[in-house]
Write a structure and sequence with these properties.
The complex is a heterodimer of chains A (about 350) and B (about 120). Chain A is α/β, with parallel strands linked by helices and about 350 residues long. Chain A has eleven helices and 16 strands. In chain A, about 35% of the residues lie in helices and about 25% in strands. In chain A, the strands form three sheets. Chain A has a six-stranded parallel sheet with strand order 13-12-11-14-15-16, with helices on both faces. A five-stranded antiparallel sheet of chain A has the order 3-2-1-5-4, sandwiched between helices. Chain A is elongated, with a radius of gyration of 23 Å. Chain B has five helices and three strands, in the order αβββαααα. Chain B has a three-stranded antiparallel sheet with strand order 1-2-3, with helices on one face. Classes of the chains: A alpha/beta (about 350), B alpha+beta (about 120). At the A-B interface, α7 and α8 of A face β3 of B.
Amino acid sequence: MEELFEDIDRLTHAEKRVAMATLVATRGTSPKREGAKMWVGEEGRILGSVTIGGCVDARVIAESEQALSSFKSRLVEMRLGDEDAWEIGFSCAGDLDVLIEPVDLTCPDNVLDCYRVVRSAIDYGKRAVIATLLRDSSRKLLIIEGGEISGSLGTPELDREAQTVAVELIRRGVSSTVSIGPDSSSVFFETHGPPPTLIVFGAGHVSMPLVSLAHDLGLKTIVVDGRPRFATRERFPDVDKLLIGIPSEIAETLAYTSSTFVVLTAHDYKYDLPVLKVVLPARPAYVGLLGSKRRGKAIKEFLQEAGINEALLDQLHVPTGLDIGAETAAEIALSILAEAVALKSGRSATFLRDVK
Amino acid sequence: MPALYSDILLDHFRHPRNYGSLDAPDISNEQFNPLCGDRIRIELKLEHSIVNQARFKGDGCAISTAAASLLTELVTGADITQLANFSDAQLIAALESNIQPARVQCALLPLQALREGLKDYKL
């Protein structure tokens, strides 16, 4: 479940009124992406963060308390030059806009209603976008993947354009503020979707820490193997689904999206070859294969002979993982997930100190 | 002494015959090796007592895949009353390979599926 919904559940049982602060725009470097949220309760509870803490969050908390007092939304624009950033501790030096909306948890509320619908859509495996007009955040348009919409940004023209933007943002899986309409109205598009999924083919010893670590990272996890003695709850206490059968046949029944990571850990051609024939053409976000470069070359040659084209073979990460000197199963799991997350984020996975 | 992996074994592994599933098979049975993970399902469609179509599906090593592929060819057209007499040695001989004792169970996995399937059918 998304952290957002966990936070809403926790606050609903503890607070009457909360301020929802959402990072809606960033310029320059920022430790968090658009869509990050912080909740500030009237009773003092704080959940989440729009940065990584420090003075910026403190300022957001202060603004949230004022928004709760007036019970009016506000857009807080933080323009931080390098010197300002240093002064207030925002060492990442970037500009950011935070939308703060007061929410009454005790009665029907537009914001809560939107999230209820979004949550239901996600439960059905769909993605959804909440478009919010930043100059009047009470105007919201909810767009569910597949075409269902509710609410309005104020005019049919804005709603139509917002739907087009939402389709693209759903495809990319990101949240963003976009100017739309004849007067270039700033609209924040908040994208939600099913949690990223890790599918592991092979229930061997590397898969155990891989699944536990993925679970901690918030990924839904699926383990597939033909051996009931290996694919057990005892070995995989955190796994969401254990599937036992012919692995390639099971592979054909699973959904692969831009949020799906696939790792083959069996280190056995009898699983690797038939499963890769199914998985590579489905183009998940990441496909990693445990094994040496030499083994990878042989597997690729075999797949090529079986009709898998070069472009699909290039997607295969073999050996899987980053070069962190991993030796233990847990270290190998860490290296695999680090590579997968970096790839999904479009990052180079280098040392942060060397990033310019 | 036959080769470790004969040309016929490698050919059936690389280009398995009768791979897939049947709609409403009369006989279907899946067997697996609990340690190495080979999994093979054999399906037969009968016309009276004659095997009209045979298919196999599974993820297995070269030996078990080739054995399953060969088995589907060998049983097609046969009378199921005769299949009960199909021996381990017949299938291993068809592989024309030097199957080591530790790998015999790989070669016989599809035959085990066939035998279990025939038992179920008789029931």
